[in-house]
Amino acid sequence: MSDPILTPDHPTLTLLKEEINKSTEAQHDLAKWKLAVTAALGAAAFGLPPLDKPNYLLLFIVPFVCAYIDLYIYQYQLRTLVIARFIRESSGDSVLKAYEDKCKKVREGLGFKLSDWAACGSSIGATLFGAFFQVRHTDLDIRLVSVIWVIGAALVIGLYLFYQIEAYKTDDDAWKLRIWFSKL
Which one, of 24, 30, 26, 29, lies nearest residue 83 by Cα? Predict the structure, then answer.
């Protein structure tokens, strides 16, 4: 059985394009929430008014909050990739199909990876920042700080790597990425 061909005026095609738009909006909202929540945790940790007393232990929460929000960002990005592939393979609209083919080629380069790097990089940066202050400004055992930091950092990096593997599963070059990760 072959895949259905969606004509340009097919209502399903319109719904799929709307779903991509909604997913993109949700990703942007999540990125804003990530910034706001990490900033609020940082402000509370440093004892900004009305607290006036630093509580650096709050910085331990930051990597887990970042990972949680990144999980949803990556979920929306994967949803968009699946819809785009479906449109590329099933659309009878030659212009839309050509656009999706062009996007696929850009995606194979670095063009669409900037938001991935921003999501992962901001999470790693916030994680490192928190670990630095924990070590320098608390009397906690360095081993405890290190273990919690490693768990948070591993979660952030693990989610990013999982997303990258899932994102490339549907592409022709997926095997290259899986071979590269298997060598780690």
Answer: 24
Contacts of 129 (CB under 8 A, 6+ apart): 42, 59, 62
- Secondary structure (3-state) at 5: coil
Q: For residue range 2-31, what is the model confidence (pLDDT) as tens digits?
A: 555 666 666 777 788 888 889 989 999 999
Nearest to 58 by CA among 34, 43, 41: 41
Which helix (H) or strand (E) element contains residue 164?
Answer: helix 142-168
In tens, the pLDDT along 47-84 reads 777 666 777 778 888 889 999 999 999 889 888 888 88
Give residue 80's identity as a one-letter amino acid code.
Answer: T
> Whole-angstrom Cα distance, residue 14 to residue 175?
32
User: 5 near 92, Cβ under 8 Å?
Assistant: yes
C-alpha angle with apex 99: 70 to 94, nearest 5 degrees? 140
| DSSP-assigned letter for residue 115 | H
